[in-house]
Amino acid sequence: MKKSVKFSPEVRERAVRLVGECRASHPSQWAAIESIAAKIGCSAPTLHTWVSRHEIDTGQRPGVTTAEAQRVKELERENKELRRANEILKLASAFFAQAELDRRLKS
Fold first, then answer.
1. Which tens digit of pLDDT belongs to each residue from 18-33?
2. So where are the chain's domains?
3. pLDDT digits (tens, 9 = 90+) for 34-60
4. Domain 1-63 indexed as CATH 1.10.10.10
5. Cβ atoms within 10 Å, residue 34
């Protein structure tokens, strides 16, 4: 199995910028992506993903920006934690209510 390579944010930004700069000298954006990808050592689909993400983040293409996706992820995590805490509180409340009933019946 092939090991995935992590590219630094600087390399990603440079590659995306190069695609934008070289776009005019190639017949299509994909041709520019293939050319730049070979030079930096990543696959063309990977670079295409980076370019698409950049276009979405800068508003050139519709979609959910990276910041919005991160915010949704944080809110979902917080929601999950709150649901778990709420469930614990419900169980504790039921336990103590039952204990109070048992104590009153014994008196």
1. 999 998 899 999 999 9
2. 1-63, 66-107
3. 999 999 999 999 999 999 999 999 999
4. yes
5. 18
CB atoms within 10 A of CB 91: 10
Judged on CB neighbours under 10 Å (0-12, 13-18, 19+), 58 is: exposed
Q: What is the DSSP string of 65-80?
A: -HHHHHHHHHHHHHHH
- Extract the tokens encoding 5: 């390579």
Q: Indicate the residue type of 42.
A: C
Q: How many CB atoms lie within 10 A of CB 36?
A: 24
Write down the residue that tokens 């930096």 correspond to.
40
Token output for 22: 């070289």
Q: Who's near 53: CB < 8 A, 6+ residues apart?
A: 66
